[in-house]
Amino acid sequence: MASTGPTVPPLIMRILAASVAVSHRAGNIIRDILKAGDLGIVDKGKNDLQTEADRAVQRCIVATLHRHFPRVAIFGEESLDPGDRIPDDYIVKELSQDVLSHVCPDIYKNVSDDQVVIWVDPLDGTAEFTQGLLDHVTVLIGVAVNGEARGGVVYQPYYNYQSGSDAGLGRCIWGLIGLGSFGFTLKSPPANKNIITTTRSHADRIVTEAVNACEPTEIVKVGGAGHKVLLLIEGKAHAYVFASKGCKKWDTCAPEAVLHAVGGRLTDLLGNPILYHQQVQHRNAGGVLATLHNHQWFLDRIPANIKSTFVSDTASEEMVRLQQQAKASASSVPSGDTLFKEGSSVDPPEFHKTL
Ligand SMILES: Nc1ncnc2c1ncn2[C@@H]1O[C@H](COP(=O)(O)O)[C@@H](O)[C@H]1OP(=O)(O)O
Ligand SMILES: [Mg+2]
Ligand SMILES: [Mg+2]
Ligand SMILES: [Mg+2]
Predict the structure, then answer these.
(1) Residue 58 contacts residue 84 (beta carbons within 8 Å)
(2) Spans of all domains in the chain
(3) In this predicted model, what pLDDT tens digit does every residue of 125-169 receive, in sequence order?
């Protein structure tokens, strides 16, 4: 009788195992670049910084994941020259055995390459990184299945950096909806407070108004979408409120999956899901609201005049569908598609399957 050989773990488990492994390498790259001292900072737009660490880590993660999963779509935040040489030691061949030791939930067993999109933020919290607020920095790898955030890795390269040389530097948190999240201790926030976390480097009048409308007893202004979701799952904040269109899919995919896997929610400000399929616009034009508990209570606090300026992904896509339908049925009608163009044309170019 022919031997059947070792069984290959399901795709989603292999993607998470590769992502966890490469996130440790990413952490080393970030720490080495900071130690070397030349951050190579450029401003990609207005208050939108990029450093050599963002660029190097994007090369490392995208090249590694593309090598393992050549048919899976990968979107990274940074736009790189596809001709860039990728050092051999940037390709991480190992898979995390810790991830592979978990049993894959049945719902993912038949997930195939074309159902998956990976969203990579090589360094979240860049503004704070350049200012030495090192624990605000995370590396984010989000795994979407059929357009929904399902799995995520949030690596914090400077966790423990102020705890003395005995404390291990860096930690990896990962999760999969249906399986759970690992690498931290889940804690609820204090019941007698209402701590709201929000941006420290991308605030404006609307951002502040939305936070104040949530009746905070305390406001924690810190950098990074990944870092703020860590505050939620470790009981340091009740809600992450960001009434801005500044966050992109790579900022929210991994944190959303990790949060959701322990019972929390991350939606836009209208309470609608953020979508993560291949064709979706990259920016979160609906803003961001994340909580471990009482999501609806916070949604209800966001003022209607603020809600009306945000557009959910589902509504944007419906708008496009109707416009395409109208164009097809009446070619003489002028193409008035300014609403969606405004929401999609400002996205930075992505580095997608160019390796
Ligand atoms: N206006 C913006 N322009 C560029 N990136 C933004 C903007 N607003 C938010 N972000 C991204 O979302 C993350 C969370 O926002 P904030 O730190 O302001 O709370 C930021 O660290 C940044 O990610 P990144 O650092 O990866 O560029
Ligand atoms: Mg950035
Ligand atoms: Mg980011
Ligand atoms: Mg980034």
Answers:
(1) no
(2) 11-178
(3) 999 999 999 999 999 999 999 999 999 999 999 999 999 888 889
